[in-house]
Amino acid sequence: MTNDYKFEFRAYQRRFVRSVTTNHGNWDIREGIILRLTDESGKIGWGEIAPISWFGSETIEQALDFCRQLPGEITKEIIFSIPDELPACQFGFESGWEMGSGWDETNSQFAIRNSQLNKGDNFITPNSCTDAINRVSTNSLFYSALLPAGEAALNQWETLWQQGYHTFKWKIGVYAIADELEIFESLIDTLPDFSKLRLDANGGLSYEEANLWLRTCDNFKANGELPLEIEFIEQPLPVEQFQQMLELSTSYQTAIALDESVATLGQLAACYQQGWRGIFVIKPGIVGSPSRLRKFCHQHQIDTVFSSVFETAIGRLAALRLAAELSRNNRAVGFGIDHFFEQEETWFQSLWNDL
Ligand SMILES: O=C(O)CCC(=O)c1ccccc1C(=O)O
Ligand SMILES: [Mg+2]
Fold first, then answer.
1. What pLDDT is attached to residue 111?
2. Given the CA of residue 305, which atom of ligand 1 is nearest to it?
3. Separation in Å, CA 296 to CA 85, 105, 239, 327
4. How far apart (Å, rounded) are the C-alpha atoms in residues 89 and 313?
5. 171 is catalytic
6. What class of enzyme is it (predicted)?
7. Sorting pLDDT into bands at 50, 70 and 90, what band is 313?
8. Which residues are annotated as part of the binding site for Mg(2+)?
9. Which pLDDT score is estimated for 30?
10. Cβ neighbours of residue 210 under 8 Å, at least 6 residues apart?
């Protein structure tokens, strides 16, 4: 058998049920690429390329250009030599290969802890990805749910709590800090005991604001009145201010998680080299090559939180597989279903029906 795979791809655009609001503004439509690799024995692997250029990955146009210049038949060598400038492509192609003909190879190399993905699972359709997700999910992972920014969080957590979420993430740095601190106090007062709260600033705080948030969180903790835990503040400062975040991480009790700063594997390695031993948010969809991510995580026992890039079921399965395999410290994964897309059942059929 040769090393050749038939390569097909389709670009997609999907509207979020609800707009995602961060300190960068509103995000309404997810654009990405679904790819299919078929080997000579007919084994199929689906992959997803879901870039977030404002977060440090390639743009959707760069990813499309890359796909368009490839021939209709590609090799494993091509898949494993995609340049680092295209991290979402590295993820999409490599995980597509793993799901198809690389499935046995990667599963024997890296036993999937508790995930109960069946050997012989045949991912003929994305629906089978969704089935597999349910098996990975219910068996080994806790989920964090994303709350809407601002006051809307106060009305949203309860529904999510009833759905079984106990860890919540709330975006900060979106509105004036005085207003957000006030909402924060109400949120803390109303969240049930033993819930966990993550605050994500998306790099949108000033140094003074970051200190104020950390001090406020530390005070809540010191007062001991919190049966709820503030798990961490995520990416308080812009990527360029790494040294300040390093300093903040040693000055406060409240933990800091880097996200934008470690968007790609190269950045992650650089932050580790420069002494970061706090939490690393890993978004597999844009971090780059899964095999190199595995190698890094096995070599350096870093504290990780795995997180979605709001991909569809195809990228989500590959990302959750990595999370189940590489997560430590039992931290909830940021793959809440809060911003799911419209027309979940039919979009794929219409995307691929001309093949
Ligand atoms: O991490 C999570 O809990 C949910 C995912 C999330 O917040 C996110 C999703 C897409 C782009 C950026 C981010 C972010 O963490 O800032
Ligand atoms: Mg984040």
1. 41
2. 1
3. 18, 19, 21, 13
4. 17
5. yes
6. lyase
7. confident
8. 200, 234, 259
9. 94
10. 201, 233, 236, 237, 244, 248
Residue-wise DSSP of 108-160: HHS--TT--PPTT----SHHHHHHHHHHHHHHH--BEEEEPSGGGHHHHHHHH
- How remote is the CA of residue 330 from the centroid of ligand 2, in Å? 18
| Cα diameter, the chain | 66
- What is d(CA 251, CA 307) in angstroms, rounded to the nearest whole number? 26
Residue tagged active-site, from 43, 76, 169, 171:
171
Nearest CA, atom 5, ligand 1: 308
Q: Which residues line ligand 1 (CB under 6 A)?
A: 52, 55, 144, 146, 169, 200, 202, 259, 307-310, 334
Please choose, from the candidates 254, 260, 269, the residue with its C-alpha nearest in 3D space to the C-alpha of residue 241. Answer: 260
User: Distance from the CA of 235 to the center of ligand 2, in angstroms?
Assistant: 6
Residue nearest to atom 2 of ligand 1 (CA): 334
Name the closest-CA residue to atom 4, ligand 1: 334
- Residue 250, C-beta contacts closer than 8 angstroms, at least 6 positions apart: none
* Residues in contact with 178: Cβ distance below 8 Å, sequence separation at least 6, in sequence order: none
pLDDT of residue 225: 64
In the three-class reduction of DSSP (H, G, I as helix; E, B as strand; rest coil), residue 60 is classed as helix
Compute the half-sphere exposure of residue 84: CA atoms within 13 Å on the CB side of its CA.
8
Nearest CA to ligand 1 atom 10: 309
Q: Do domains 4-117 and 139-326 have the same CATH topology?
A: no
Residue 22 CA to ligand 1 center (angstroms) comes to 9
Q: What does the domain layout of the chain look like in residue ranges? A: 4-117, 139-326
Reported ipTM: the value is 0.98
The topology (CATH level 3) of 4-117 is: Enolase-like; domain 1 (3.30.390)
Mutational pocket test of ligand 1: of 168, 234, 261, 308, the residue with most ligand atoms within 8 Å of the beta carbon:
308
Task: Show binding-site residues.
Answer: 200, 234, 259
The CATH architecture to which 139-326 belongs is Alpha-Beta Barrel (3.20)
Which pLDDT tens digit goes with each residue over 91-149? 999 999 998 877 666 654 444 433 445 545 555 566 666 666 666 655 568 899 999 99
Q: CB burial class (10 A; 0-12, 13-18, 19+) of residue 159?
A: exposed
pTM: 0.92
